[in-house]
Amino acid sequence: MEFLNLSPVTLPERLVELRRHVREFLHEEISEGRIVPHCDQWLAGWDPSFSRRLADRGWLGMAFPTQYGGSAEGALARFVVTEELLAAGAPVAAHWIADRQSGQSLIKFGTEEQRQTFLPRIARGECYFAIGMSEPDTGSDLASVRTRGTKVDGGWRVSGTKIWTSGAHHAHAMIALIRTERLGESRHAGLTQVIIELPDPSIDVRPIKLLTGEHHFNEVVFHDTFVPDSRVLGEPGAGWKQVTSELAFERSGPERILSTFPLLVEALRHMIHSGLDVDRVRLGELMSRLWALRQMSLSVAGRLEEGADPATAAAIVKDLGTRFEGDLIDSVRLMVGVEPDLASLQRLPRMLAEAVLHSPGFTLRGGTNEILRGVVAKAVKVA
What we know:
By secondary structure, the protein is of the alpha+beta class. 47% of the residues lie in helices and 14% in strands. The protein has 12 helices and 8 strands. A 4-stranded mixed sheet has the order 1-4-5-8. A 4-stranded antiparallel sheet has the order 2-3-7-6, with no helix packed on it.
């Protein structure tokens, strides 16, 4: 079945060399104390100065065309860089969504003015985006969007609420999915994507704190917010097709596998330094799953590089990957015998606590596992 194509990808030598450069850079960043490794940093680790240092090396906008400030290196080059950043527990949240998917949506569906306005700034690490998809009381049912856009002279008036909007309190813009036509026979019709620039006095951004006390989630309320016609992304009414194509970028990347990988690295250091016997069976199981998932994620990146839309394969990677991230936490606790302690000055207890407290969101963000399995089942049935 072509939609489940996960053919192996072999990275060319230039990307092997790129990986070496990224590792050297990260070693220096950590050694000099400019960054400190943590778990789940692709959403919780907001560090604009680090994002700009990556941009200075050409490591943002790697899949953007050169005329928009990118390097046109492609999806596989971006995969190599992001994989190393995630494995090191680097703070990448500021630029993550803009670089991963918002920029790609602008390239695919945006006007030339929209591309020129946002893409070069994203590539410089100066412009951050949020995702306006989820809404209260709707779970993972994206088609039940109730945030409404009403046509007015020169644009649209938007009213409604988005939730679980990571980084909205820092972001410069949000791509929001809104309903611009009355709900008809098809819930997928009449949806439109719009670019809403932030901050805006008509928009309330309310924090939703994690169990750790950290803040990256938000509730975002639009009070008759004006969005000019120039900020409609793509065609009015084509939002469902556009947003589902975006999900291949959101669901398949190494961030769906490596959120807790820094914890595993620290646990291995602890076991070696303390002389603990390594549970080779448990560790072997983790590493074999990790390697298989990594190959799957890399395969999806290869399909994206070819211009394909591997949405179903991406759903499989996300489902299996986020379950692995949670299982890794349980395995580490059994192997090291250390209790999680968020206030600890030692890295392992602190990382373990971070991972435990962040873990409830792993299988929810980007679509629950149940929704993802439904996506796969529907694709199999159609095929």
